[in-house]
Amino acid sequence: MRWLCLCCPPEAPASDRDALAWLALGFTPRVARLEDAVVAEVSASLRLFGGARALRQRLQGQAALTGLALGALAWAPTALASLALARCPPPSAQGRLSERLDALPLQALSAAHAHHAMLSRLGCQRLGELRRLPRPALARRFGPALLTALDQAYGDLPEVHDWLTLPERFDARLELPYRVEHAPVLLHFAETLLRQLCTFLAARHAGVRTLRLGWQHDAMRARDVAGSGELTLATADTTRDMRRLTRLLAEHLSRTTLAAPAGEISLSADAVLPLQDSSASLLPGPSDPQERTTTHALLERLSVRLGAGRVCEGRLREDHRLDHMQSWQPWPAPPTIALRRPCGPQPTWLVQPPQPLRADTREQPTCCGPLALVSGPHRVEAGWWEGPGGMQARDYFVYRSAARGLLWVYHERPSSTAPAATGWFLHGVFA
Amino acid sequence: MPSIAPATAARPPLALPHRQLWRGSSMGTPASPTLSSGFAALDAELPGGGWPTGAAVELLVAQPGVLEWRLLAPGLRAWWAAQALPAPSAGRRAAPAPAARTLLLINPPHTPHLPGLQALSLPPSAFIWVAAQTPAEQLWAAEQAIKSRVAVLAWLPEARPEQIRRLQVGALGSDAPVFLMRPERAGQQSSAAPLRLVAKPGEDWTLAVHVLKRRGPAHEGWLALPAVPGAIEPLLTAARRQRPPLPAPAPVPLPMPVPAGSPTERPHALALPVLPA
Which helix (H) or strand (E) holds A244? Predict the structure, then answer.
C-alpha cells in the first residue's frame, strides 16, 4: 500500500479541497478525505505513471496548471501515517515507518493531539513515548479511540475509508472579490470555475456539451433589473478541453452586457456525457483525431462572433428545382439523406435571387455583352405539389459570356397555374 | 611561396543544404509537401510541382465567381482523396467513411451550389459557408481558420498587403491548402504570399494562367490550361469543343451595367468613347 497525503495550504478555501480530491481521482479511484487532507492510495497506479516520483511531479504539474495551491505532501504505507508525516515532516525521510513515526510530536496525530495537555504532563512528547505506555491503562484513561488511531497509523490495525465518489452533476459557485460591471471581466473568475470543471470531468472520464454560467446581481441594482442572469454555452461535440471552453466563453462574454454589477458567479453542467479518450498515435497522419475537434472549436467561435446564421452548412435535398436542391442551415445542421443526384448539368455557383437579364433585339439574353448559346433548353417543371407559389416551369440554357464565363440562364415558361414573370434570369454560374 | 590557387582547391566545396540555397534561375523546393493541381502544364511551372501547403496562394481574378472551381477543383479533389486514403486500415467491419476535412468558403461571391460541387467529386458535407460581411470579419475568420489548420478559400477584395502577410505567417503552420482570391488590381501591390497567380478565361475552353510570383525564375507568358466545366463536358459536340462559338464583340456596346474599373474593357473604351444618343 502506498498512500499519498495531499494537504491544502491552511488559508485555502474549502472548495480547493474538492478540487484537490478531484485532481487525485484522476490518478487513482481510491481517494478519501481524512480530516482536513485528501489521501489517495496509489499502489495500483504507480506503474502506469512511471513510479512515485513521476506521479508526484505530474500531480504537482497538473495542480499548477489548474491554479490549485498545493500544501504539504507525504508518502506512507498507511493513510494516517501519511497524514502525520505531512503535518510534521520528520528530520529524515529514511528508515522504517515505526522509527519515523516514533520521532513525531503528538500534534501529528489528531487523536493524540486531543489529549495533548494531559499527555505532556505525563512527560509524553512524542508518538514513540506514547506507544510505550501500558496499553490497558491508556485505553482506560483516554478511551479506545486513541489506541485505535495509533495502531492504524502504525499499520497494526486495518483502516476503513469512505471512498470518494463524484456527484452526478457539476455545480460550483464563486463569490467575486469585487463587483464586476463588465461581462468580459467575468472571464477571469470563470476560468477558476472552468478549471474545477475540467478536473471534475477528467476524474469522471467525461465531457460536456452544454454549460451554464450564471451570475447574481448585487443588492444595489436598479429596481427593474432581475436578480440574476445566465449564459448557455453549447459545443458541437463532447469536450473537456479547458482552452476551447475558455475561448468559447470569452466570445460569449464579449457579446454580453451585464444589466447590473455582478457579485457572484456560478458554473453548472447538468448533462455529463461519457467521453472516450483517443489513444495517441505513433505516426502523425492525416487521420488526426484532434483535427475534428479543432475544426469544431473554430466553427463555434466563428458562429458566436459572426452570428449563427452566418456560418452555414449545406445539406442536399432531392428536388429538381435549382433553389430547392440544397439548403444552407446554421452550423451544425442535422444530417439529411439525399441519395439520388439531380439530373442535368449543375452549376457550381447559384445566383440568389435570380438576376434579371436584358434581352436584345432578337429576344436573346445579354449579360455584360452578348451571350452565345452552348446548350439547352433543359426543361425543369416541378413543385406543383406546393401550390402555385412553388410551381416552377422553366427552360434552362447554358450561355457563354466573354467576361462572366458560363452562365445558367432560364426563361420562365407560361404555365397554366401561375402568371409567370417573363424575361430571362441568370440563376447560376459554371465556375 | 604559397599561392592562392592550391589553398582554394584544398578547401571543401561550399556545403549548404540545398533548401537554403538555390539559384535564381532554378525552381525552389518548398519545405512542405505540395498538392498536384491536376494540370500538368501548371504543375511544371509551380515550385515543388503543385499547390503548396503551409503557404497562402493568391489567385488574382478580374471578376470573382467565374473560374475558381475549374482551376481549383482538381487539386482539392486530390487533397481530399489523400486525406481519406490511410483511413480504411481497420477494415474488418465496414466502418462509416470518415468525415472529410472541412473547407471554409469565406465571403464567396455567390451562393455555393452543392449539387454542382458534388458533380465535381467534391464532398458536399465538407463545405462551410462563412458569410462575413465587413473586411475585418473576413480577415478575422480567415486567420482563425488558418490557425486551426482548416482549408480555406477566401475572397478578400479589400485586403491590404500587411494583412496578407499576417495570413501568410499563420499559414506557415498549416497543412491544409489556403487560397486567397483577390482582385486583379492587387497584382500591382507587393504581397507576402509566396505564390501568386493571375487567372482569366482563355480561348477554346481554356483558362489562361500567369504565375506572377513564385520561388523561382520569373514566368513568361500565359499558360493555357484545358478546363471544360465538368457539367458542360457531356453537352459539347466535337465541333463546339474545338472552336467555341464566342460571340463577336458588338460594334457599339449597349448601355449595360459594366463593372466600374474593369481592366479588360479599358482599351476598347478608349478606342470608342460611348456617346449617349
Answer: helix A242-254
